[in-house]
Protein 1
Amino acid sequence: MKNRTIAVLAVAAWLGMTLPATAVAGHWGDFDRYAASNEQLKREKADDRVVFVGNSITDHWVRDRGEFFGAHPNYVGRGISGQTTYAFVTRFRRDVTDLEPAVVVINGGINDIAENSHPYNEDITFGNIRTMVEQAMMHGSKVILTTLLPAANIPWRAEIENTPDKIKSLNSRICRLAYLYDLPVVDYYSALIAEDGVSLKPEYTYDGLHPNVEGYKIMEALIVPQIELTLRDFKEDGTKSK
């Protein structure tokens, strides 16, 4: 185990990554987090499964709004707090495509801007998002892209500069990607932006970055109608292919 830990740290250093202390105990993509649930879902086939992949914003959604996911048993949360899109790509097969979802909802990038695992490079982060889109489509799933939520700064990384500009730039590229692949994009950003043009509306957050319950309700009102439309398209495409 000691040699394995040294090897993980060596690779992390070579990649320029900053790993949390817990990451060296297992895979830095946290493959174990949903392993048991994934195995169960793979045994339970569903033609309307919707997988939400993301970071703490998705992770806390399931935690804080369990009644929302309970009311939509076909919705599957696959968020892991603290993760960047680098980790999303690493676990995408296990946590997303292996579940054979009809629809995949992708939300990520804020932890890349926060430099949780790598120095921020917009091109690479955008490429990670595009890779997930292409993998999902290759496996027959429909994709819904979503914009990053607004944030004036990174609460745990005060030294990160120009956070609002970085969010706007990445959101613009996400919207262009949606146009390129003819995908829907749900704009959380515009619904949650404060009057100052940079912050998340204070009534919808508890720390300036993560939604509170009321913030999640706004997001739910936006995403559910789009999921219903996308599921309808998925089913129609399946009928046409028969």
Protein 2
Amino acid sequence: METACDEVRIATDDGSRGTRGTVIDPLREVIATTQVDRVIAVGPMPMMKAVAELTRPSHVPTVASLNPIMVDGTGMCGACRVHIDGQVRFACVDGPEFDAHSVDFDELAARLGMYASEERTALEQGRG
């Protein structure tokens, strides 16, 4: 990103790199003080949703790199199904990058939660 952008700002929960905390505070500052051409959000679903909600009022183009469960990589299984502007898309073949303002994050978060117990079991058994 640093070779492709004029400025890259990083935030980490523990402050080990960049600003300590979430991306929202530094992003809010940048949007308020700078002409922003595009925001790219990569990370946990709640963070990408928060970024999209922050940039929406300013009409800053925002890309979310979605990471739903992907099983076969062809879209046939439907595990990575997401709604973008009300239409079904498959992150494995149509993405994973989408206009963040068009993603139905609530539905996607609910779908990701469907496998929480299986993921927890796999981690406990050392398979994750």
Protein 3
Amino acid sequence: MNRTPEPDLMNDADQAEAYALADFSEPHNLFVDRFAQRFPDFSGDGVTLLDLGCGAADVTIRFAARYPACVIHGVDGASAMLQWGQQAISRAGQTARINLIQTCLPDPVLPRDSYGGIFSNSLLHHLKTPTDLWLCIKRYGQPGSPVFIMDLLRPCSETAARTLVERYTATEPAVLQRDFFNSLCAAYTLTEVRQQLMQTGLHHLDSQAVSDRHFIVAGLL
């Protein structure tokens, strides 16, 4: 199946509300757990992390809870998502440790020149120019810092994509089912991701499929 791009930003008010109110605790806790498994010696002490494509900040908040000595800068281009994210951060009592920034790749305006770790959940498939993500990581990651990227894999056919939608989102609101299908169609294959890593000089990072719909890229810069 050829890739079908979707909009870079998820800035529709109804869309942002649906994502902010949905229960993503299982996959988002799994994201943080996999990071901890991949980097067991990482403590986060005195480290400022960068979350690229933080959306409504659910993963960001879970990272802050897992690593209570770190500071996190969450980046997203969608103001509607960030509004929900700021409310969630306030409820979690994490306003002193999480700073949300509205800015976009490929040239984000960030408060720091470098970061002690970079993570991203489900941003890559939104990007028409996927190397924007990898070049941003190279630009802002400190040498030896952890990188952890998780995203969707593009299925082999539209039928396979609809099967995944039915399997994982059958009870979700229509907007989430629609977006999941569109995101699957906009995702990259693992071969394409590895080509992107090679092109940007990050081929030393590990890349592997971890489910029927997700891959992970991880390693140290």
